[in-house]
Design goal:
The structure is a homodimer of 349-residue chains. Chain A has 349 residues and is an alpha+beta fold. Chain A is built from twelve helices and ten strands. At the A-B interface, strand 4, strand 5, strand 6, helix 10 and helix 12 of A face strand 4, strand 5, strand 6, helix 10 and helix 12 of B. The first copy, chain A, binds a DNA duplex (30 and 30 nucleotides) through helix 2 and helix 3.
Chain lengths: 349, 349
Amino acid sequence: MDLTERKLKILHAIVADFIHSAEPVGSRTLSKKYDLGISPATIRNEMSDLEELGYLTHPHTSAGRVPSDKAYRLYVNHLMERYELPEEEKRIISENLKSDMMELERTIEHAAELLSRLTNLTSFAITPKQDANRLKYINLLPVDDTTVVLMIVAENGKVTNQALRISVSYTPENLELLSKVMTHTFRGRTISDVLTVDIIKYFENDIEAMSRLAQSIMPNFMNTLENMLNVDLYLEGLTNIFSIPEYNDIERARMFLEMVNRKKDFMDVLINRDNGMIITIGDENTDEIMRDCSLITADYRINGKLVGKLGVIGPTRMKYDEVTSVIRYMTDNLSRTFQIAKGEHEDDE
Amino acid sequence: MDLTERKLKILHAIVADFIHSAEPVGSRTLSKKYDLGISPATIRNEMSDLEELGYLTHPHTSAGRVPSDKAYRLYVNHLMERYELPEEEKRIISENLKSDMMELERTIEHAAELLSRLTNLTSFAITPKQDANRLKYINLLPVDDTTVVLMIVAENGKVTNQALRISVSYTPENLELLSKVMTHTFRGRTISDVLTVDIIKYFENDIEAMSRLAQSIMPNFMNTLENMLNVDLYLEGLTNIFSIPEYNDIERARMFLEMVNRKKDFMDVLINRDNGMIITIGDENTDEIMRDCSLITADYRINGKLVGKLGVIGPTRMKYDEVTSVIRYMTDNLSRTFQIAKGEHEDDE
DNA sequence: GGTTAGCACTCACCTTTAATGAGTGCTAAC
DNA sequence: GTTAGCACTCATTAAAGGTGAGTGCTAACC
């Protein structure tokens, strides 16, 4: 790994050039375009060494050199310079990501859209896993004879509701009482916690009518809780890949779109990534079908804890410096937005 | 339009063949494959006539004939035979579309997915416009000092909620009272109706505290109502177009995907279509960019009134008989599912 | 007069061939 | 160690020729 200063310089130039041109870069153009102070022949010798070391490859004998995944990794870790976002973009991001009223979903969707626009890549965002989220409030409301609405409010402000059709008859008072009992019983417990419990037994000792009502509502309650655990995925800028030379091949474009459209699988990959800004390049992706993509994810926090993710996926040849800057700026912004929301309304806990 | 029996027979054969093969069809293959009882030369003469009448075109002099949009129209209106769905498919549809508990959104999304799977086309579904939907129930619930949850239940069972952060202080009793007043005031009115009203004035004469609370909640109330009006769009099977020869051209595939991904515009087109099973072929589409697609939509009903839509979009060369059968079977199923739901729970109105 | 066989003609498509040029690897001289 | 020079490679493009599916037209047939 101890490359000479000169080799690093050459490698840097090759990666930077290839990222912009998408064309294999040759010794001649390199010596002309970049002020390296050495002749093409010398560059050729160095490139030959770099190839032997696994940093470059050759599409065919008479073509220029192309960076390998290893080269991109070196570039990202050591060579790439910090890219300062233009004020204009900063402004756009800040203005678009202020959330007036805790509308998490809308804000996140918006963020994904913005990210794809600024990077010209396919972007995505997921909402946080809710498993550490605690219940705060459970409410049952009468709608008509056979329909009640179940509403669950969590500590982080997430509200979920579902209309239930039940066969047991009830009175509004029954419902209200049951709401109170349920709130009292489950308040402060996490969703996943409640889901693992044999819930019916809590209520079997209550008076007959209440117990039957409770039993008819509980399965739905569990079901709704399960749905609350679901992570939402927002995908934006899908058609951006058509502007990328690497995907000018119909078969590759198809593979790419099919991969990200297999939402269930794609989400699994995202959810299981570590927190922080994570960049995986080509081969480094454990998923076979992502092997010629780079995936960049970063997380944003809500109330300092619950973590959602935001990022892009594209060809290994991407503007890592710009993209990471945009993502970082956006996740910082999101975290700050939601942090403030917390500060303002959760002092009472 | 009074084509001879024989011309119709030939045209039918050409359309049917082309729909399956996607290749221009020539006189020789036609006479071999279909039992028309006439020689290729005669067929050529007839085809020449049909071309003159605008039913066929010629990609180039030495190619076979290709049906025009006009031919497809004739085929759809008069030639195509009723296609009976295989029992297997009927079973799949019925089993997948039973909705246990009025989860409209989930069921509709599911339907779109199923439709794309059965037709190998890109499918879509939209939820009904809510503008005729009447309010039934408005509820405000305290969460903490600065947060309340606003919940709105409509007559058709749709429930919407939103967490609001308000700056005015309140008591639970205030909230409850306000809920009752709002429910009393707006119950039975349609959403769009309420939206066009100067709502604040309803409350300005109430006692001071209530009025301020009401004023701080009303903008959010309106906002939530507006969101209730939104129609959801579910798009499925996007990558199916890659299996269609017509879209083997990267530029066309891109155009197609960009068109359907411009959700706002695409939804407008869908919403503004007439009800019933509507087929528009190529040129017949008013939208420039859909000019080489066919769009098929049908509607499903909820409680016999509110109408959502379901359909597919693909190349003009599509299996109209099969696709229309699938769609019809699905919309019938959906309407029936939701109809039953109505019968069961809305007798009290 | 409608139908058909025959034949010249067209044109997309494929293969072959040749020219071009960007780029390399190697060698020998600086 | 660096560089100039040169032979060599190979993707890419253009031109040329061959192939075959299909047409349009004409003249003969029923």
